[in-house]
Amino acid sequence: MKRSPIIFVSTSILLFYSVIAARSADISDNRPVASISIGAEYSSGTYNTDTTTRIFYMPLVVSWFPHERLDMSIELPFIYQTYQYHNIATAATPKTVTRYGSAGGILSTTSTSSTSTIIPIKSSGSSSTTSGLGDIVLRAGYIPLLEKNDMPQLRASLFVKTPTASLSEGLGTVEFDFGGGLDLSKWFGNIHLAGEALYTYQGKVSGLGLKNYLSYTGTVGYQLTNDIQPMLVIKGSTTPSVYSDDLMEVRGRLLWTFYTSTSLDLFATRGISKSSADYGGGFAVIYSF
User: How high is the pLDDT of residue 121?
Assistant: First the structure.
């Protein structure tokens, strides 16, 4: 009952975006005014615990671009998690993982660093499964400096994570998070370099040991053809809780525009730090209009 107003407000914003995007369809240039993406990400790891956590993260992301310098988006995720406890003696209070944020950073204009947060849950057996709505995320970005000659593009961003996911199911913290950051990007012929830093203020919950943290992403891409761009991505963050170490993973990503207004984003990931997922992968289909 507590989260119903949040869901109502978020749904209203989503509908507002859709109406505005439809009314903006007569913009004279060829840039997209909106996009819709549907994705799915799978990850598996022990996260430096006695529990193997497998996560399916499935976000619907609606984005609106009212101006070439401005972007806004809303993300509505569904999460399915399974836990396998290797030490039954500790199964009453294992430390497991909840995920939020864009799966894979679906679009460069709305990308974030997905981050793991350690959350205690309870179980009476050797395994358990939870699922449900994740935390709805609202984002906005503004580009004060467009790329020009030797100058890179600079984009500033803000986000709010709403507490729509269940704490008892280990899917969220039932607290608001918010943050902001900067990202730089520059093309050198067919080579694309990008970097992002984002600081997150986490809502504090007794017993969870949550901490504010800095996340970062570095990307090297190459425009292989007009429609295909492979990328190598390094993602990480400082420790998000007292139960976690710093996070870091390496990700291979392929962005393929297989139709004028439709793209496919594919990625595979491998964890580097003990508190990151051991491996994972996923995809997103993005339709722009």
Answer: 54
Q: Choose between 171 and 152: higher pLDDT.
A: 152
Q: Which domain holds residue 224?
A: 4-16+33-288
Is 26 contained in some domain? no
Could you give the number of structural domains in the chain? 1
Separation between Cα atoms, residue 65 and residue 140, nearest integer Å: 10
Query: Does residue 27 lie in a domain region?
Result: no
| pLDDT for residue 243 | 84
Q: Does residue 21 fall inside a structural domain?
A: no
Task: Report, as an integer, the average pLDDT of 231-260.
Answer: 94
| Rounded CA separation 138/142 (Å) | 14
pLDDT of residue 26: 46
- Which of the two residues, 83 and 141, has the higher pLDDT score? 141
Buried-exposed string 139-172: b where 16+ CB fall within 10 A, e elsewhere: bbbebeeeeeeeebbebebebebbbbbbbebbbb
Measured CA to CA, the distance from residue 55 to residue 82 in angstroms comes to 7
- Backbone phi and psi for residue 8, each to the nearest 5 degrees, phi listed first: -60, -45
Q: How many CB atoms lie within 10 A of CB 87?
A: 11
Report the pLDDT value the prediction gives residue 227, as an integer from 0 to 100. Answer: 96
For residues 105 and 70, is the Cβ–Cβ distance under 8 A?
no
**In CATH, what number is assigned to the domain containing residue 275?**
2.40.160.40
Flag whether 102 is in a domain: yes
| 170: pLDDT strictly greater than 50 | yes
User: How much is the pTM?
Assistant: 0.82
**Measured between alpha carbons, how far is 179 from 128 in angstroms, rounded to an integer?**
32
Beta pairing partners, 230: 254
Is 60 exceeded by the pLDDT of residue 130? Answer: yes
201-213 in b/e form (b: 16+ CB < 10 A) is: ebeeeeebbbbeb
